Amino acid sequence: MNSMKKVLTGMRPTGRLHLGHYIGALRQWIPLQETHECYFLIADVQALTTHADDPKLIQDAVTQVTLDFLSVGLDPRRPNVHFVLQSGIAELYELTVLLSMVTPYTWVATNPTVRSELEHIGSGATVGFMSYPVSQSADILFVGENPSDTILVPVGEDQVAHLRLNNKIAAAFNRTYGPTFPMCEALVGDVGRLPGIAGDAKMSKSLDNGIDLSATPETVRKQVMRMFTDPKRVHANTPGTVEGNPVFIYHNAFNDRAEEVAELEARYRAGTVRDVEVKELLIEALERFLGPIRQRRAEAEASPELVAYFLAAGTVRAHELAQATVVRARQAMGLTYPNLFKT
Ligand code: TRP
């Protein structure tokens, strides 16, 4: 085994990934491939917590997310990079149940991310939903071979509460049964969140306010043209506000020409540029950004067997780790009966 530190992170497959996923998550995952043993999890079981009635949607999304991963330059051809399909590792269910025994229900019920999600789900929340933070802990901890390691988990800011909970669960287990699990450490990027095109706080699939990484040039144009700007600016010669203005947030996130952005901002503040010109230049910037992404996606789409192989190979590798971890957890908890069964 190599001695690289481990990265584990995941994404729920509920549809194609968009620019918000790129800024909030994928962008930080890419450079970690140079330095870490990386496990990128496609959390299809966790997707069932919100989409249990739509297996087809999750099934399609697994393929799309795998293609999205490849398109942004996650590269499972590297020996240290693994794409993992969550449902392919039955030991994760086992580990979830074992960890749930040391997790007070109140830790989950008071988790701020769970609480804000519950506001949307309401009384329909399932047991599966309420226990997903524990299952997410199993996702993280299964890669831990040594309790003195630290597992790095690059995530968006909404996931930090889960990582804190993970460390409480791991510590509780270790306190009761002896050192078994490592801790994890969150890595949160600087632009944690990209607003939706209508200025909504967050780009999200369900609000249809996003731009997919696989969007065609026509869709990119249409979405940028629909994008909100400064609502107080009625004429092109009214001085406008750049701060909090979605078009400029996107320019700053995606336009590789810093001088162009600075000049546009100055002209916008002075009221000497039309919104549509700012948008045209944003479309050009997004096309420069998306060009190579579309090309890698097209290459991957041309070899579906290879894409499936990447997912299978990473899952097999992760499965080996998970088996070893579950054996350690069972031993720590006394769920082995050497006097009864000789193996
Ligand atoms: N909850 C994460 C999300 O909604 C996905 C996820 C599942 C995850 N397992 C994980 C993230 C483990 C980090 C670590 O995007």
Termini distance? 26 Å
Q: How large, in whole angstroms, is the Cα Rg?
A: 22 Å
Order of helices and strands, N to C?
Answer: EHEHHEHHHHHEHEHHHHH
**Hey, roughly how much beta strand do the residues contain?**
5-15%
Q: What spatial order of strands do you see in the largest sheet?
A: 1-2-3
Tell me how many strands there are: 5
Tell me the helix content: 40-55%
How many strands, which pairing sense, and closed or not: the largest β-sheet?
3 strands, parallel
What's the mean pLDDT score? 94
What is the CATH architecture term of the largest domain?
Answer: 3-Layer(aba) Sandwich
Shape: elongated
Note poorly predicted spans: none
CATH superfamily of the largest domain: HUPs
CATH topology of the largest domain: Rossmann fold
SS class:
mainly alpha
Give the bound compounds: tryptophan
Question: Can you tell me about this structure?
Answer:
The chain has 343 residues and is mainly alpha-helical. The chain folds into 2 domains: 6-194 and 303-332, Rossmann fold (3-Layer(aba) Sandwich), CATH 3.40.50; 217-298, Tyrosyl-Transfer RNA Synthetase, CATH 1.10.240. Helix content is 54%, strand content 8%. The strands form 2 sheets. A 3-stranded parallel sheet has the order 1-2-3. A two-stranded parallel ribbon has the order 4-5. Helix 4 crosses helix 8 (132-141) and helix 4 runs parallel beside helix 14 (304-333). The longest helix is centred in the C-terminal third of the chain and has 30 residues, at 304-333. It is elongated and about 85 Å long. The two termini are 26 Å apart. The structure holds tryptophan. Residues 8-12, 41, 43, 46, 136, 139-140, 153, 155, 159 line the site of tryptophan.
